[in-house]
């Protein structure tokens, strides 16, 4: 990765006058250059993958600690058994609201419970709003670290305590994705799941819930013939868990506003009524059963979840039975819930007023954090809270008739959280050998516990509960304090790491692709400075390594901390000192005579250098400004539309106004395409499915493909291209066989394009027939599924096999090939977006090639060998090493355009706040069985295709303008990392879960985007041969020529 090597400098200096040797060295340098780029790509991927994980160490470290002692309640429990109903994917508003058509509740049985028997409220979940972390919070009482959702649903990445561990006997029925999380390793828990194939999005998923209800009914029936089972069911501390997946599956397939979703709510209500009646009959209405009904997460209008959207984070909670208070009037409502108990006492902007269409405003509403449900259930059963639970017992839900038991349960909850705090504090103190800073607010904790015990002994239940809540709040603050104890150190390391990476890339580009580089430095100065900076680098490596490793060892830091510091040392102690020498010499030479010649004429060399520095600063400020605008676009998608409109207008009148004799028609078409592209980011993200738009888009792309068979671009060429054209014409006159071969290739190209166009039309037909079949609930036709997979695989494989005969033909072939899988993965207007993106990129490449022919436009940084630097900054491109041009201001402008196009390609048809907006219904032409990793892979293909198309157009441009593609991509990566630094500081771990979820999504997307760029660079390099050139067959000024 390091370009500056003393031996190479000495070698260049000794052979400076040997032209033949220098040419050979240039060829060798090109080989080494390629290997260095591969090293940079590899380091970039590892760097961003590791630093993406940093936010979990900084903001979302795993809360699990071990070694705590359980704290029982030591009083008779109000309930002998607890029945837990979890309706996976149930939104609070769809459950509580009154149906507009019938004027009645969709769940009459549970509605009756709310109004006459139990208590109700909203359970506020935490991101990621997924099945696994939601169930962990409900049953174990702690918020699993966000990264655990990527480790799978079935297997626990770490062992943790939960409700079922504490019971005497537990029974569970439901999804194979959920039950194994809690049943494996628990000998006294009996569970049963339906097969994975039953989770079919093409069929009515409510049958999954019916299966669960039937299994519980069969359990109670079997107890009449099985004495051992009967004994277990009639024991104390028994729990039955019913996981109801139908709503989640139907919500994904049909959306939460669909009839199927509403019908599933009614089915769940009837099933719960049936189970409650069976339970009461089985136990003879002994009044010792508690019931809890809730959900793990909600669902957005798009039929997706995962982010912090309110529709995903608000779920219903209904509790009734033994130990639970009955309904109260809202006149007794405590201050409206604006803050919920939980980690760091987060402030949530919940609806302070119950929506009018719920018709529940007259009733007392008890909102809780999702983790609070775990201590609620353990308190009803009289078992210790899960050891890692951060939930706080919602005392207002428990019966008012047993204040002593409520106080004892809250005291046990307090002791359990205090125990966790003590372990956390002790662990951090032991691992921090020096400069340990304790949490001072709990220095008098023993006195607080003495006061709690005193109030309990005097039967002052309310005063004891108030103190318990205060103690819990302090303990949670202390846990958060030690959870974030290393945050200042880590944030400094990560920030310096990002800046080090950006500076390293910038120096590499300056050294290899500009006049500031090594080839133009005074070799004697360079050799002298190299030795000095090499010594400095060695000192820095030694000092930084000793300091950082010593600190990490003293604090018993995890392995990832060492990786963060490795990159810090690599960039700041090795790559930056090794590559900064040419820039240092350039700046010193530029300002060496400024002070002495102030007020006098400055020589030409210094004047030119100062002009280069001034232009470089202006361009850098402009680039950073555009990146900051793209950061704003993450929060306001309309910014992308505004930028596209500005791009269309400004480019026509400023950038492309000197692009030769370009027809007004093409300029107008470019402006119209930019205005059309600006529409898509403004469209609603909850547009839903529209098969007709997909098919219509497929037809339009087919028409564009047909038009390419009739017309192809033509225009003025650069001098180098004209020379190549003349050489080709001479060769055509001398060799007639070459013309015949080209004719054969042209026919072959037409045949392949025709096959691709037919495949696009076939894909449109498959989309229409498949969606019709799914809408009729017939299922996914096997023939359609087989054809979809064949078209997807063949459309991708052909990219690696075939190459077009020329620039334009190859671009057309790539566009048609990529359209096939994208169409099969589309559900609404994405295909229209993709077709317009093809047109927009085609015109962009055409105009950029035309602009390149105008030699009057000044270049930013370039050189003319063996001559004095020009003060006008207009230099010859032919002077570059290895026949590659140097980076110019227009190349940087194209890189900025490319970044913008990439973001439009990624977010133009989706929610910019979250990747969850890319719905899994896009995969239904390939599979309707719930397979998260396969579906995720298909969604990644869909996301990747527009980005690949933009990358290919950028590679084609760089290839034909003789701009080194690696250098331009490194500029892209460096600029994009500016946004990563912004989002790193915008990540939140407090506030609403919407804000937290959005901040995590932004940072993750920004880093993933950079990793994608590194992969796109490699893929586009394979798909675009370096020999592929945009060459005209005539010298006419016509822009389009009929074949």
Question: How is this structure best described in words?
Answer:
- It is globular, with a radius of gyration of 34 Å.
- An 8-stranded mixed sheet has the order 4-3-5-1-6-7-2-8, with helices on both faces.
- The chain has 1043 residues and is mostly helical.
- The model is unreliable at 1-33, 149-154, 334-351, 595-604, 713-722, 855-884, 911-917 and 1031-1043 (pLDDT under 50).
- Strand 3 (169-174), helix 8 (179-183) and strand 4 (189-193) form a beta-alpha-beta unit.
- 58% of the residues lie in helices and 5% in strands.
Describe how the helices and strands are arranged.
Layout (H helix, E strand, L loop, with lengths): L5 H9 L4 H34 L1 H5 L22 E7 L4 H5 L11 H9 L2 E6 L6 H10 L22 H4 L2 E6 L4 H5 L5 E5 L12 H18 L3 H7 L4 E7 L1 H9 L4 H24 L6 E6 L15 H4 E8 L46 E2 L3 H9 L21 H29 L13 H13 L3 H23 L3 H27 L9 H32 L4 H21 L1 H11 L12 H32 L2 H18 L8 H14 L13 H18 L2 E3 L5 H16 L1 H40 L6 H20 L5 H18 L5 H23 L36 H19 L24 H29 L4 H22 L6 H31 L16 E3 L1
Parallel strand pairs: 1-5, 1-6, 2-8, 3-4, 3-5
Antiparallel strand pairs: 2-7, 6-7, 9-10
Helix pairs in contact: 1-19, 2-34, 9-11, 9-12, 11-12, 15-17, 16-17, 18-20, 18-33, 19-20, 21-22, 22-31, 22-33, 23-24, 24-30, 25-27, 25-29, 25-30, 26-27, 27-28, 27-29, 28-29, 29-30, 29-32, 30-32, 31-32, 31-33, 32-34, 33-34
